[in-house]
Amino acid sequence: MKFPVRCSAALLWLGISFSHAEPEAKLPPDADEAAYPAIGRFVEVLETVRKRHPDVDKLAYDRLVNHALEGMLASLDPHSSFIHPEMAKQMEGQAEGNPEVPSLGLALALRDDGPYIAAVTPLGPAALGGVLPGSALLEINARKITAPDFANLTGMLDRAPGEVSTLTLKSPAAPRPIEIKLVHRLVERRSIAETKLLDKEKGVGYVRLATFGANCAREMEAALDELEDGGMKSLILDLRENGGGDLNETVKILGLFLPPGTAVVTTRGRDGEMGEPMKTPDRQRRKREYPITVLVNRMSASASELTSGALQDLK
């Protein structure tokens, strides 16, 4: 899960993990004194780049430092990111602004060199069209993007299903700008990507939970009801590639399998501050005592880790 942290004029989205256990507070592996030579090394490289790199238009201190911070946060985990000051200001000034374009399955953001593709929804038009996150957005329908305004950008891309938008992008994977035509469609926001009985004779059910989104607990309960009515006797819960989501919905999903009122998670900051334990709902409509196998991989994070750990230890 992501946790916003204000830092000067910018924002940091920091990955935060939850556990049903009580982890010990951890400190960075090096001493405080290690900061000075590390910062000195950064400044040395910064000044060398400004002095010797031929592309002088890209050598402003703000630009170099912001992109260095972007790389630093991206190196931590898939859920931490640096929000450029331009985007942070936009988020403050237009709280109602929505940088997502659901009909294309992408999200926009701002950085010092203009708007770019911040995220791409799996299996959406942008993903199927080969759009990569991080691509700079140069033109929309042959109109160059200048003095970016998020309200105008999303408005330019607000089209009915079946209509086509032509985007000119500078992809991080291509040396030159490319033109991509995308057909607008409604991207259904469902958390469950697939539900089926893998083996009717043995009663093996399968549910792939792609994200812990809004109302995913209700989706999960409906999927389980359908599988159980079809004869399910054991469940495979697929959390591979699931990077997490809504913590409250996660606790509700755990409540479908664990006894009512079970404490499943506490939050603890690095400085030791503790939050109130979160418990499964007080009522449970059905008891589900069948075996559960949870599938995870290296991209399963946050709520996925919590769910798999709680089911392993508490069920």
Short description:
This protein has 315 residues and is α+β, with helices and mostly antiparallel strands.
Description:
The chain is an alpha+beta fold and about 325 residues long. The chain has three domains: about 1-20 and about 30-85, no CATH class; about 90-185, PDZ domain (Pdz3 Domain); about 190-315, 2-enoyl-CoA Hydratase, Chain A, domain 1, CATH 3.90.226. The chain has helices at about 35-50, 60-75, 85-95, 125-130, 150-155, 215-230, 245-255, 305-315, and strands at about 1-5, 10-15, 80-85, 100, 105-110, 115-120, 135-140, 145, 165-170, 180-185, 190-200, 205-210, 235-240, 265, 280, 290-295. The chain has a four-stranded antiparallel sheet, with no helix packed on it.
Task: Please describe the structure with a list of short key phrases separated by commas or semicolons.
single chain; alpha+beta; Pdz3 Domain; 2-enoyl-CoA Hydratase, Chain A, domain 1; 25% strand; globular; disordered N terminus
